[in-house]
Amino acid sequence: xxxxNGDGLRSVSGLPEELxxxxxxxxxxxxxxxxxxxxxxxxxVTVIEGLDPSSVNLAELxxxxxxxxxxxxxxxxxxxxxxxxxxxxxxxxxxxxxxEVE
Length: 102
Prior knowledge:
Elements: H1 21-28, E1 31-38, E2 44-49, H2 58-69, E3 73-76, E4 79-83, H3 90-96, E5 100-101
Parallel strand pairs: 1-5
Antiparallel strand pairs: 1-2, 2-4, 3-4
């Protein structure tokens, strides 16, 4: 998404970099899926997939979600895993951050 032409315009939006719209466009073009899996001892884990790690800082997003939900979690294999059942609240939080959710 860098300035490929040397004219001060971004390659995705064609708009000046100072507007910061490329990150918003990258987020809105991605579709996240949220589901709940059972793990060892029937512990529920909310899994968020479908986000491109090259355009979204998954560790930072996971940190924001963990803080908002007051849970633990991790980023593993390009997906965010949150402890507990959050299939109702996680999509809402992702939409607030500009992502499309299936």
